[in-house]
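MODEL INPUT / OUTPUT PAIR
PAIR INDEX: 1
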Amino acid sequence: MHEIFAYSNPVIEKVKLDFKRYLFDKINWNSRLIEILGARGVGKTTLMLQKANLLNKEVPNQAVYISLDDQLMFTHSIVELSESLEQYGVKYLFLDEVHKYPPKQKGYDWSAEIKNAYDRYPGLNIVYSGSSVLKVYKGHGDLSRRKSPYRLSGLSFREYLELSGIAKFQAFQLNDLLAGHQETSGRITQDFKIIPHFKAYLKTGYYPFYKEDPASYSSRLMNILNVIIETDIPAVSYISFETALKLKKLLAAIASTAPYVPNLLKLRQELLIADQRTLLKYLDFLEKAEVLTALTQETKGNKIMQKPEKIYINNPNYSYSLHKGVEEVGTIRETFFQSQLGVEHEITLPSKGDFLVDGKYTFEIGGRSKTATQIRDLPDAYLGLDDIENGVLNRIPLWMFGFLY
């Protein structure tokens, strides 16, 4: 046990507490089993370490953190670890990177072990994190009735302003934004120019590590994409090396013209994929991994069997990196909008306009000269406009949609 505490305590103690993500206060930390999923690089580890740090400030050594890809877990099982920790009075066990856990026997993976630990040791609260691609994973242990699931997205524009030390604001609800955007935007922009910060966020502000080495940010994003396709997806879906190559080619094809209106037959021919179901499964992998966002007009049914009507790169930082410096302004604007609204709202494609939110609000996205011609006769229709600080009536500054979480 000394080895576990020697590993855990220094990591927990050095985490900074001055900035916490939007999800931190939304989690019910009293739940006995908490799942935190999210794309690689969005800050899941930091979130867990911050909570462990605060718990240990209240009661020393009541929280332990361990990454399941650490060599310690090659000789310890989750169940054995849980038993020992509970005997030592530990109340909270934080398990990071569960999809990288090395199983100790066939047919008995991390989900089965967590299920058994949950059932056997009721005095131990377990929090685990993993790649968002775990949504496609069919584990050996059924955790659905036990876990409280949460998803962590990348930084909102509001969070970026706070983390950068520029300004701190509370998030607001979509209804409040639509009703009072003119007054709200005036209050936000009275002390500083917001447009330059918004442009910087679109290029390099979605991931919390943007401050570490700005010069290598784009190359780091490309490395993350490679790890997602070569490591994270194969870890939960058992795809072959050849399939991983096809996923890369699929991403490249979509990125070249995103937002992409898919021609599934052409894609199958280019990638040498035998049937449409397999291609849709590949698209589903990339969407679950939060590399792509697929939109349709319908929200019901088995999504993997639906042909997406439009495909976006998941966030504007990915778009800039994949476009190799070519600035597709219209694409970036729409990508930003769907990345921010998609966190807490349902987005589909309308018959008119660019996006339908929660089945009610229609949005057309564009530059400051964009007109409302396409959505003029629609109720609850709004323009999200770039390059303006303040709006009027249904003309809303695009940057304001980055304040919703």
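PAIR INDEX: 2
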Amino acid sequence: MDDTGLYDCPMPESFHDKMGLTVFLAWLFYLGFVSRVLFAPLMPEIEKELGIGHGEAGGLFLMMSLGYLLAPLCSGYISSRINHLGTLKLSALLVGVALIPCSFIKSVWALGFWLMVVGFAGSIHLPSAISTITAEIQKSDWGKGLSVHQCAPPLSFVSAPLIAAFLLRWFTWREIVLLWAGIALLSAFLYSFLGKGGEFPGRPVNIRNVKVVGSTGSFWIMVALFAMAMSGNAGIFAMLPLYFVTERGFDLGTANYLIGLSQLSGLVMVFFVGWLTDRVGQKRIIALSLLLTGILTVLLSCTKGWLLIMVLFLQPAMLTAFFPAGFAALSRIAPPSLRSVTSATGPPLAFLIGGGMTPLFLGHFAQVYTFAAGIFIAGCFFLLGPVLVLFLKLGRYDDQSGC
């Protein structure tokens, strides 16, 4: 039973009218994302000061990932109690609060715990942000709103290493983390006073709601499509430095420099794809994105020299095109009141495959054969995406109002 009538839902407005809200949500998303990504370029200094090895450093990132996986279980419960607006405020505030002890503690285990909190805090933002944007902005402008919000990940991957490289000239890694905590807390306080969107509750991720969402075939198709996109993004790109060094003859510094700069193409694409999604529809953009990503990934496995670098810069642009359309489509496969449930369960399930199992597969495959062969197989996997899109059914709930 839909109980959206028990509370007031926002009246959707144009993207232009809600641009301020969308930009502020994108900024909060960026803060939380950088809070996780920033520890990667700082890790050599952290290893040196704490006296830990690469294995323990990897364990710290694992703890952060555990926080990401815990968030979907709690985000719906939190937003059902304090509304999406309260959840967005809590996310920004908790990111800043969790970073403060990270800048002082000396125990690797304590640091791991607080990094798990950072991962959790940043991840409870996304379901509430998606629900807020799709409720506050009219459906014809969803692509624009979600594109602005999805600027945060590519911008984070580009800017976090540059922030670390620039500030390490004058500050220690602890001081940089403390500075970022201050920025997050200031943003949380500003949003607490200025934030208006999302003044309606989410749905807890309970068995009944998961059953409703899970009974929809299109939900599982979207999980598979997101898994493909995240495999090409977090999965393959996590292993690219090793691939470039061991099989393509690049030195590590040049490899990391090129991989970092290649993310700029995704940042440029995210502005264009929002307009294009609203013009041609989500299904066409999803299919085209995965088709071109699959082709470019196959080329990534068999090219060298300047052609390889060209493919490297094109692939993030094609991948970035998927996400605004993907999140818009995800918001159309369940009733409006369950949008926060679909966005709280679908992407994390996909990330388990794309961001977790794909690097594991590529690593083991490289030990037996080569990285190139594993990347070739992944590219062929992405080419199944346009076929799956044919079975994707959207718009069943488009005539239902509410949030």
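PAIR 2 NOTE: Residues 54-102 form the longest helix (49 residues).
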